[in-house]
């Protein structure tokens, strides 16, 4: 399994580095321009061009919501890939989204991909920290209309040291982690730790 983060989400990259798991990172810029930043996080953080990074099996979409269409254009089809939607469409009017969760729009744009909403409810400064907290593990919420994809990202979250909690479909429990207009889903910013 191969991984990429589109938009250089340093907090996410750190989570991979902490466990020694290789992940590509890409922005709109030449990879050489952020190679030093990637290297400072760890040797498993590999800067790439967007066109190369999207070859990964599992792709974290960590750009501003407004930029998702630009990323979606990078491939004609996203068949066989899983997109983890880390965006928060805060401030985007519900009318603009036809009343649907923003993740549904992203799912349509990345045609053929399985979509999981996740890793978006914590601010970067919190996600940045070691998820082992007082003997428990920091919770990440996952929502998807595809149970197998949610399970796949749940396994990855486990491997990264988090405690994944599945919320169900995007339009059901998933609404708890979707920003809507100028309001936040009720679970966004809730920094929870699970003790097994
Ligand atoms: N910051 C947080 O605390 C936080 C928490 C939870 C969720 N989020 C969500 O995560 C997303 C990113 O937030 P952020 O604060 O990291 O935003 P940001 O500081 O604006 O960073 C955006 C990143 O995306 C890259 N990018 C922009 N357009 C791109 C494109 N077309 N192709 C590839 N890369 C592109 C930018 O690289 P360039 O240098 O090339 O522009 C930059 O690395 C947002 O949707 C936000 O809502 C953020």
Automatic annotation (TrEMBL):
Q: Which GO terms describe its molecular function?
A: oxidoreductase activity
What InterPro entries has UniProt attached to this entry? NAD(P)-bd_dom_sf (IPR036291), P5C_Rdtase_cat_N (IPR028939), STEAP_metalloreductase (IPR051267)
Annotated Pyrroline-5-carboxylate reductase catalytic N-terminal domain ranges read 4-88
The taxonomy runs: Bacteria, Pseudomonadati, Pseudomonadota, Alphaproteobacteria, Hyphomicrobiales
Any Pfam family matching the protein: F420_oxidored
Cite the Gene3D superfamilies for this sequence: NAD(P)-binding Rossmann-like Domain
Q: Which UniProt keywords apply?
A: Oxidoreductase
This protein is called what? NADP oxidoreductase coenzyme
């Amino acid at each position: 399994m191969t991984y990429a983060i589109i938009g250089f989400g340093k907090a996410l990259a750190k989570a991979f580095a902490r466990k020694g798991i290789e992940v590509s990172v890409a922005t709109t810029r030449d990879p050489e321009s952020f190679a030093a930043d990637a290297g400072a996080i760890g040797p498993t953080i590999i800067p790439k061009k967007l066109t190369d990074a999207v070859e990964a099996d599992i792709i974290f979409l960590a750009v501003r919501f407004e930029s998702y269409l630009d990323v979606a254009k990078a491939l004609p089809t996203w068949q066989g890939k899983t997109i983890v939607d880390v965006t928060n469409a805060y401030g985007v009017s519900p009318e603009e989204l036809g009343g649907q969760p923003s993740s549904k729009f992203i799912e349509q744009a990345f045609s053929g991909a399985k979509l999981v909403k996740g890793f978006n409810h914590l601010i970067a400064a919190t996600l940045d920290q070691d998820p082992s907290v007082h003997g428990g593990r920091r919770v990440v919420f996952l929502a998807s209309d595809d149970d197998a994809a949610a399970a796949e990202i749940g396994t990855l979250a486990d491997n990264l040291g988090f405690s994944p909690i599945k919320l169900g479909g995007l339009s059901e429990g998933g609404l708890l982690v979707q920003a809507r207009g100028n309001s936040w889903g009720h679970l966004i910013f809730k920094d929870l730790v699970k003790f097994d």
